[in-house]
Write a structure and sequence with these properties.
With 503 residues, the protein is an alpha+beta fold. The chain folds into 2 domains: 133 residues, Beta Polymerase, domain 2, CATH 3.30.460.80; 277 residues, Orthogonal Bundle (Cytochrome-c3 Hydrogenase, chain B), CATH 1.10.645. The chain is built from 16 helices and 14 strands. Strands 1-4-3-2 form a 4-stranded mixed β-sheet. The two termini are 27 Å apart. The relative contact order is 0.14. Its main location: membrane. Its cofactor is Fe cation; Ni(2+).
Length: 503
């Protein structure tokens, strides 16, 4: 069960400082909830992660009346900066003392005073275009010039605007403007039955389908007090590791594109395609959708399919080792990635960075091990950690994780034939206005889903914190000191997702 501590909003800063304890616990998420229909006020929630105890706890700051204000945490918890800006955008709550309250999620076209996640906002009401301006801080001085990139890019990717300030070739500052295609999923699922909301949640991101489905499902099951069968748990882990595998293999290949190494790109694309076809055999689609569902798993895996997976893993292992040999022998490629885009360990801690990006900067963290779920605590695997914090560290760490994922999948393949049991349990009537947290480790890092139920098995509030949301701010730390041609390499090494933050 989650531990909640409720304090008046004016005491939130003091209480959060005690929880944070100079970084001993991590601020894993921060969000608001309009609880006026329930208790007559607003609430700000801080989720703290204690990796030593393997537990999450929540601090709830209560705002009873206007003005809707609470003390900012950003001055001593830098990771709070984005969360507080988002709370200000979507709820109109003011984090007093925040150093930069420019819009984050809402841009210059959104009118002031309209807060889409308040309960009295009617999502069917047309919102007029404000046609305002979006301020981007400028770096001034002799010889300084700016290079704008995006939001529309030459590659077929989602939109993001990057403004580089340079003095000669080295970048001295990077400003990123994101959230161009925010879909309002958290608003769209308000009042929607849990089983129907699941299909929107599962589609937050194609590459993190299983991770989002698993986090949401585990949050629902926690409210329901539901235990999922062991066979379903094994299928869930299999799906999650297959998702991690095709992402990591693809990421290693895609990173080669940033250095113009076409052979590496082709090898990675070929192996990814092989794994995507395997996904379709396992789940009926290439993104493993519909396999993990609240209550368990929606589809079984036959002995013949398990044998097929083993065969493909054996072939993939050899092919991937060949790609890594090509990379290690290419001194031009190595020169491009070594000491490029360094994210210092302290910066990673301060910003609450997760996943590969954190582990490549010396932070030993992994939700599968530290906050065990499904059957991961029963499996034998290691969590690779590197300390250089550069592009190379993030690349080789993914390579190490591919080996661990294959090792996990082989354990799943060996254990699954021995298991029987019902794949999916029905979701019972859920108690209204109860909350829970679900989590999972995606290929990019931890995904968290917090939900509060409404009446008749509906959602009152859903909050999603993706791994990319935690990691995007780190890009602005890793890029300065490098040159613009290195930006594609640095960006790809973090493997950041636009869709995961535009939820």
């Amino acid at each position: 069960m989650l531990k909640y501590e409720r304090v008046p909003a004016r005491q939130l800063r003091e209480a959060a400082a005690g929880r944070y304890d100079n970084g001993r616990q991590q601020l894993a998420a921060m969000f608001a909830n309009d609880e006026r229909p329930l208790r007559g006020g607003m609430a700000v929630y801080c989720v703290f992660a204690d990796p030593v105890a393997g537990q999450y706890s929540l601090l709830q700051g209560i705002l009873e009346q206007e003005p809707w204000e609470f003390p900012s945490l950003t001055s001593f918890i830098p990771a709070a900066a984005w969360y507080e800006r988002e709370i200000h955008d979507l709820f109109g709550l003011v984090p007093v003392g925040h150093p930069d309250l420019r819009p984050l999620v809402l841009h210059e076209n959104w009118p002031a005073g309209v807060y889409p996640l308040r309960k009295d906002f009617d999502r069917s009401t047309p919102v007029p275009d404000a046609a305002g301006e979006f301020p981007l801080p400028a770096v001034e001085g002799e010889g300084i010039f700016e290079v704008p990139v995006g939001p529309i890019h030459a590659g077929i990717i989602e939109p993001g605007h990057f403004r580089f300030s340079q003095a000669g070739e080295p970048v001295i500052n990077l400003e990123a403007k994101l959230f161009f295609t925010h879909r309002g999923i958290e608003k769209a699922v308000e009042g929607v039955p849990v089983d129907r909301a699941f299909y929107q949640v599962e589609r937050i991101c194609g590459a993190c389908t299983v991770s989002h489905a698993l986090s949401f499902s585990q949050a629902v099951e926690a409210v329901a007090g539901l235990t999922v069968s062991r066979r379903a748990q094994y299928i869930r882990v299999m799906a999650a590791e297959l998702e991690r595998l095709y992402n990591h293999v693809s990421d290693v290949g895609n990173l080669c594109a940033g250095a113009g190494f076409a052979v590496g790109v082709s090898h990675g694309s070929r192996m990814k395609e092989q794994l995507m076809r395997l996904n379709e055999q396992v789940a009926g689609n290439r993104f493993l959708r519909g396999l993990v569902v609240p209550g368990g798993a929606a589809r079984d895996v036959s002995r013949e399919m398990l044998h097929e997976i083993k065969q493909i893993l054996r072939s993939l292992e050899e092919d991937f080792a060949e790609l890594l040999d090509l990379l290690r022998e290419n001194h031009t490629f190595l020169d491009r990635i070594n000491t490029t885009g360094i994210l210092p360990q302290q910066a990673a801690r301060d910003l609450g960075v997760v996943g590969v990006a954190a582990r490549a900067s010396g932070i030993d963290c992994d939700l599968r091990r530290d906050f065990g779920y499904a059957v991961y605590s029963e499996l034998d695997f290691k969590v690779p950690v590197r300390f250089e914090g550069d592009v190379a560290a993030r690349l080789w760490l993914r390579a190490d994780e591919v080996a661990q994922t294959i090792h996990i999948l082989r354990q799943i393949m060996d254990g699954m034939p021995l298991l029987t049991g019902k794949l999916k349990a029905a979701i019972p009537a859920l108690p209204a206005y109860q909350s829970s947290l679900g989590w999972s480790e995606s290929a990019r890092g931890g995904n968290l889903h917090w939900l509060m139920t409404g009446e008749n098995n509906t959602l009152y509030r859903l909050f999603v914190r993706s791994a990319s949301y935690s990691n995007w701010p780190a890009l602005a730390v890793a890029v300065p000191g490098n040159i613009i041609p290195d930006f594609p390499l640095i960006n790809k090494s973090f493997e950041l997702c636009y869709a995961c933050i535009d939820r």
